[in-house]
Amino acid sequence: MRVRNPILTVEEGRTRIVAAGFYPRYAEGSWGFINEEFSTPIRDALKNEFFGDITREPRGCFIHGAIGVGKSMLLGLIAQSLMRTFQANIKFASAAMLEDLFFGFRDTAKKQQVEALRTCDALFLDDLGTEYGSEFSMTGFTNIIEYRYAHHKPTYITCNHAVHVLAEIEGYGRIASRLNQSDWMLHIHYQGSDKRVRGSRNA
């Protein structure tokens, strides 16, 4: 990914990630959200990796925490920052979207979509571990992760489980092993209560 000159405005970044497939509500966050939600060490790690004066291609990020704490909103903020800073081809997919793609994988259009997820500059995957997990879909998803790991392509993932817990779920062992590589992934444990229960939109 090449650094943009000049970088895009915040609004341009939000527009670009929605065009890449993000749900519009995931594009509503701001830096204030991170200041409010995270302790100083995590805040500094996020800023140094994704929100500072970035001059190098960042690592991926594995964000885990309970349901509704705001993981997807953070995913959207990272995507905004990358789109503003880099000339990048990014893609977004939820677990449900992946399941649908693999279910109809013999369809040429869906094959092309899967290949785009495998090879894009930066891939954002939401809710890993909530998909149905058929043998065929797990093979396809593992192939995506293996390719991206081998080519050191930044990948950003939200999950309700920590990596060591994910590793115990049938079919996720190889995936968890790759996600546990610190030179490829920054790990963020997002702690908090379910904002959707409180009526917040930051879910």
Tell me the name of the CATH homologous superfamily.
P-loop containing nucleotide triphosphate hydrolases
Net shape: globular
In DSSP terms (H or I, runs of 4 or more residues), the helix count works out at 9
Low-confidence stretches: none
Class from secondary-structure proportions: alpha/beta
CATH secondary-structure class: Alpha Beta
What oligomeric arrangement do these chains adopt? single chain
Could you give the count of β-strands?
7
Side-by-side strand order of the widest sheet: 4-5-6-2-7
Number of domains: 1
Instruction: Please give the alpha-carbon distance between the first and last residues.
Output: 29 Å
Mean pLDDT: 84
Largest beta-sheet characterization: 5 strands, parallel
| CATH fold type | Rossmann fold
Percent helix, as a range, is: 40-55%
